[in-house]
Design goal:
Strand content: 5-15%
Low-confidence stretches: 1-40
Shape: globular
Structural class: alpha+beta
Number of helices: 25
Strand order of the largest sheet: 6-5-7-8
Number of strands: 8
Mean pLDDT: 90
Distance between the termini: 42 Å
Length: 511
């Protein structure tokens, strides 16, 4: 939907003063000047809102093209696509993923979209459910740190599955849809309960906002206008869920959440395409997402300010280690101590891990469970485990998160000598992973320590091209992909702007 200057003026008069002229990308089209940032929405301000924020997000989703994207946004989207594909195929042998794939095959349906790392083709929403679940299963996917949102794993599977369904979708459109979907889910998740750690609140933001984000990009690729994109988001709202209990219990639900979201999002878009109507006031209505799930605590500024001008994707952090992002600061601290003091495991008598409130309950307690993980998910969310792997093997890799690895006596001997401590001063202002301080008491009497505030992979401390390629190779090798096929995939994504049909990319993922 395009609004002229007069329509914008009328809209501004209806607003509560704080958000006068709509998001930045629309202002640019209308030639209007940018207003000052709006304050966080209060209950009174929210009641006065006549245009739900979802309307602006839907306009944005429908109208932004590849040519509108800044170069860093394009580069990040391509990295997200490459990263997601490699991680997902690496999870093809995961027991829960095999169960999901076999059940989907038995369920049948039209052969519309590729299940990555297999020759199976199934309905688009079913393919996205498996691919998104695989993309999250290894805890290796990207993170928008301010809100712990895993953006690519709910966006990329939906984008590629629907692109196959539609046919003729270019690589440029894959990039644009990925960038738009990423921006939408990051904005929605960061705006909810601003300043509060999502996992402390109890929601898992990835599936929660992923339902809506995947519905919107699916509707975009189906060619639906903004009003129907909004409607698809409304159907997705009726399905959203996702909480962090699965993380605490070491359950498979953690890795299946993005799959449920991508599946539900595509179903929503396909139903709207056929005429089903979803709720309109998705975010700010009396029973909308922010009222129902956040008690009305949200920031309209974080949701809409700079829309189309400042994208979230350059702030995405890519993971160098296949474990919870909140523990990567502790890994980096352990690796730094190992290198600086040339430590071996036998040199260390005792380890202390200090971290903030957001990470403590998720990665450090109860201590006994973190010292002896009962499942792979437990190990992915254990600071004692990842620090032990870093100290013993000089890296944290996929091989540290298998049922066999959980029995390694050398790793368990280190975790048994590790304690964890809560330090509120290590929390991160504004949300996201906090700092970690790792202290090692050495057998020769020395006490050494390292404080790390920003982990490797953060935009301020990015992975190098060589590190990124190493991760890609590690994942494709774990998947059993032939080297020539992996190189073809790598080059296709590297030159994605030149791809004329996304189905070419999907074919490379069949093996």
């Amino acid at each position: 939907m395009k609004l002229d200057r007069r329509q914008f003026t009328r809209l501004g008069a209806c607003m509560a003063g704080s958000f006068a002229l709509g998001p930045g990308w629309v202002r640019a089209q209308a030639g209007a000047a940018a207003p000052a940032p709006a304050p966080a929405a209060s209950a009174a301000a929210a009641a006065a809102i006549v245009r739900d924020g979802m309307a602006d997000l839907s306009d944005f989703c429908a109208n932004v093209k590849f040519e509108h994207l800044p170069a860093p946004v394009v580069a990040t989207a391509k990295n997200q696509i490459l990263d997601t594909l490699a991680i997902a195929v690496a999870a093809r042998h995961d027991p829960a993923m095999k169960i999901l794939r076999e059940w989907t095959q038995e369920s049948g349906g039209r052969a519309e979209s590729q299940v990555w790392g297999s020759t199976l083709r199934v309905p688009a929403e079913a393919a996205a459910r498996i691919n998104a679940s695989m993309g999250h299963a290894l805890e290796f996917d990207d993170t928008y740190e301010p809100s712990f949102m895993h953006a690519a794993v709910v966006t990329v599977p939906a984008v590629l599955a629907v692109a196959e369904l539609v046919g003729g979708v270019s690589g440029k459109e894959l990039i644009a849809a990925t960038a738009v979907g990423t921006d939408i889910v990051c904005r929605m998740s960061r705006a909810g309960s601003p300043g509060a750690d999502g996992f402390v609140v109890g929601w898992d933001p990835t599936p929660m906002y992923g339902f809506i984000g995947s519905a919107m990009v699916a509707a975009r690729l189906l060619g639906l206008p903004a009003e129907q994109i909004n409607s698809a988001a409304g159907l997705a709202l009726h399905q959203i869920a996702g909480n962090s209990q699965g993380n605490l219990d070491g359950a498979h639900s953690k890795r299946l959440g993005p799959g449920f979201a991508s599946y539900g999002g595509i179903i929503s878009a396909r139903l709207v395409q056929r005429g089903v109507v979803g709720a309109k006031r998705v975010l700010e209505g009396p029973k909308g997402l922010y009222k129902q799930y956040h008690g009305g605590n949200y920031s309209r500024e974080l949701l809409l300010n700079g829309l189309g001008e400042k994208f979230a994707s350059p702030d995405i952090a890519f993971k160098p280690y296949p474990s919870c992002r909140g523990g990567h600061v502790a890994v980096d601290a352990a690796l730094a101590l190992r290198a600086e003091y040339k430590l071996r495991a036998q040199d260390v008598e005792r380890i202390e891990i200090h971290c903030g409130p957001g990470e403590y309950g998720l990665l450090n307690a109860p201590l006994e469970r973190k010292q002896r993980p009962g499942s792979v998910v437990d190990a992915q969310f254990s600071n004692p485990w990842v620090v032990a792997a870093a100290l013993l093997d000089g890296d944290v890799k996929l091989e540290h998160f298998t049922p066999e690895a959980l029995k390694r006596a050398d790793l368990l001997a280190i975790t048994a000598r590790t304690t964890t401590h809560l330090d509120p001063t290590l929390g991160r202002p504004g949300g996201g992973p906090g700092a970690a301080r790792v202290v090692m008491q050495l057998r020769d009497g020395r006490r050494v320590e390292k404080l790390v505030r920003v982990a490797k992979g953060d935009p301020s401390n990015p992975m190098s091209a060589a590190e990124f390629q190493k991760k890609f190779q590690e994942c494709t090798q774990a998947a059993g992909m032939q080297a020539a096929q992996a190189e073809r995939l790598y080059q296709q994504v590297l030159n994605l702007e030149q791809l004329s049909d996304a189905r070419t990319l999907a074919a490379t993922l069949s093996f």
